[in-house]
Model the fold of this input.
Amino acid sequence: MEVLRLGPESNIQKELDKAEKGTRVLLAPGIYRQKIEINVPDLVIEGSGREETVFINGDYAKKKD
Done:
């Protein structure tokens, strides 16, 4: 199984796009201001805890454009 170790400065989408099935992604503590799309089967993403690894994105369902 492939293991990726990424931090807030990483381009997570770029790494996920080239990940193999069953990859495990370990995220360092920090604030991630990225929107990601997961297209890899059996992908596991682990953070350092809900207070330490946070994804923030200003997108929502009824947002214009």
In short: The first strand starts at residue 3 and ends at 6.
